[in-house]
Structure formats: C-alpha cells, structure tokens
Amino acid sequence: MAECLSETAYAKINLALHVRARREDGYHELETIFAFLDKGDGLTAESADELTLEIAGPFSDGLETEENLVLQAASALREFAGVRTGAKLVLDKKLPIASGIGGGSADAAAALRLLNRLWALDLTEGELAAIGMPLGADIAACVYSRTCIGTGAGEQIDLAQDGSLAGFHCLLVNPGIAVATGPVFRGWDGIDLGGLGEGDILFAALAGRNDLQVSALEIAPQITGVLHMLKAWSPVLARMSGSGATCFALFDSAETVQDAVLEIRKRHPGYWTMSGSLRDAADV
Prior knowledge:
The protein is of the alpha+beta class. Helix content is 30%, strand content 29%. The protein starts with a strand and ends in a 7-residue tail after the last strand.
C-alpha cells in the first residue's frame, strides 16, 4: 500500500492590514501582521503516476480541481525540482471560500510542504515560498504558517521572534457570506494612513487597523454585527481578517472562547466558527 502523508493548511489571520499604495501591476503595497490558527483545511497525498486532486469537505461544493491552487502549486514544485512522478492529493475543505483567512493560499502552501516530504526534495521553507509566490501574494506567509510581518504585496516575509502572541486562543466567525478579494481592494479609498507601529508584535497589532474594512462593509454589512458580538466578550483584540468577511478575536482564556462559540451558534446557527490557538515557532 502506498504511503499516505498529511498536512494542515492553517487558517491565516491578518492581525493588522495597512494598505499603503496601489501598484501598477494590480497589487497593493501592504504592511500586515500574519498569524495562524492551529487548525484549517486538511490535505493528504500518496504517490501516483499522475498528479490528481480530489476535493471533499463541507466547503467543497463548486470548487474546480483543474484550476485549483493546490494543483498549480504542485505542478510548479514538480517542474522546479524535475520530479517525474505524480501524487494523488485529497483536500478536505473546512474553511469557507472567499472569507479573508487565506484558504486557497493556505491549501497551496500545504501542498508545497506536503509534496516536499512525499517526493523527498528537502527544499527549505524559503525555496518553497519562492516557488509559490507567483501564484498568490499570501502563499509565502502560508508556507511558514507562523507569525510574521508581510510587506510588498504581502509576499516579503519577516518572521516574528518576540513571542508576544504565545498562549493566545483565537475564535474565527464568518456570517456565511463570501466576499471576493478584488472588489474589496478596488473599494479602498487610496488614503495612506501610515505603516505598522514599532514594538513587539502584540503592541503593533493592537495599535493597528484593517484598511479594507470600510470597503468590505459595503459588500457585507453583517461584518459590523459580528465585530460587535465578538467585542462583547472583552477579547484582547477583535478585528476583520484580510478582505473579510471572517472576523477574529484573541482571548487569554480557552474557556471564554468555548462559551462564546456556544452562544454564537445558539444565536446564529448559520454562522461559521472555528476556534484554536495561535501557532508559533514551537509548533514547527
């Protein structure tokens, strides 16, 4: 029986997202703090003659396999490394689509890490990030899947070392609305409100903002209600992630997170939730 390996595509969170300028290449100049939940989509792989992808899970409906970022990343890695074999990939899609938590980018990054092991390539994280970078700006951060600062279009990565986020518990909430990234970025007002502050990661996150929130609210006004609901539990920080509509809250207490999840599911059974801890260097 062929060996089957597995990898988690960790949910990405933008603790702060400062948009600095529009670029001629269609991207935007950003300064952002990436953090990652210890949960996400699941990906498995086993050796095969061809490179194939099967998608299952609660958010698999409507997803195409041929143009999926997982296969694009796998093909790019195979070409880079000169691999002649294939792989049977199965994606368990647990993260909602177009939700601001990097689902597609995280899946592509997980494919790079997973196939690096399956094909015994021994490439570094930096090499994997460089392979994934042309496919999406967030893929580089998702390859590392631990707290970091992203600049450029988000693809220039500086790993955080201060450990100020260690021990925090996180709750993600999405009101069941898909929000495409492109329209949200196009709706940005073009006003540069400044970059990230100095100090440790937690201080910079608390002092930060999400410059895409105003634009996202035009598409999904329910985001306001989600944030009010999360802030009622007195988190350390609550904010919209990425281009929305998923919002996050950081807590000191796992018990508070579980109480909040139960209340949210009771009041809003159609809302999606996921809870866990933030990953750091110790998880790698």
